[in-house]
Amino acid sequence: MQVDIINIEGQKTGRTIDLPEEIFGAEPNSHVIWLAVKQYLAAQRQGTSKVKTRAEVHGSSKKLHKQKGTGGARKGNLRNPLYKGGGTVFGPKPHGYDIKVNRKVKDLAKIGALSAKAKDNKIIVVEDASVEMEKPATKEFNKMFLTINGESRKSLFVMADYNEIIYKSFRNVPSICGTLLSDINTYDIVNADSVVFTESAAKIFVEEIKEEKEEAEA
Asked: What's the pLDDT at 156?
């Protein structure tokens, strides 16, 4: 899959990069993608909600009145869930929401999500020199992305290496989700309208597939 490399003005530089079909030309598996997204969202839940049972709330444990002979209903103590300040029945307790998904399944999900974006022509590669900045500038960076990417609701910006200046430039822009290539996940890909790779990040895909083929032939 050949993709044009563009500059900061959104114009073609005359150079292209051949992204591997193994990653950007696969048939997406919707169920696998759903599993990966479900696991990611479940992992974001803290699971720290907690209420007190009748054994944990403060209050006397003395029976309010004798069992029979009062003409009223039977009563236990003030910790009864029916009373104000009493315990809660079947309330939430701290627990994890983690879902196990095998590594190969997660990799397949990422490949499927990237292939779906490539099929919709939502993969963009921008040259490294275009995004280099001397100091953080959120307004300038956002303007650059609007030029490159149009009026997309949300863009996923993928870098090869961490750059503090670039990070500080896009961290306050709600329409840009930036990440390193090593940290990319299926949810971020699916949640974005388009995926913007720096040229150096895109080349890593090419190099990895080339190394895998050389190892297989050896």
From this structure: 93
Residue for token digits 């701290």? 94
**Are the beta carbons of 198 and 126 closer than 8 angstroms?**
yes
pLDDT tens digits for range 58-99: 988 899 899 999 998 888 999 999 999 999 999 999 999 999
Tell me, what DSSP letter sits at residue 27?
Answer: P
Contacts 24+ apart (CB under 8 A), 149-156: 149/124, 149/194, 149/196, 152/192, 152/193, 152/194, 153/193, 154/191, 154/192, 154/193, 155/192, 155/193, 155/194, 155/195, 155/196, 156/184, 156/188, 156/189, 156/191, 156/192, 156/194, 156/195, 156/196
Do residues 193 and 157 make contact, with C-beta atoms less than 8 angstroms apart? no
What are the pLDDT digits (tens) for 92-122? 999 999 999 999 999 999 999 999 999 999 9
Pairwise CA distance, residues 31 & 40, whole Å: 14
Integer Cα distance of 13 and 182 in angstroms = 26
Alpha-carbon distances, residue 172 vs 54, 101, 143, 189 (angstroms): 46, 32, 13, 19
Domains of the chain and CATH, by start: 2-46+100-217 (3.40.1370.10), 51-91 (no CATH)
pTM score, two decimals? 0.81
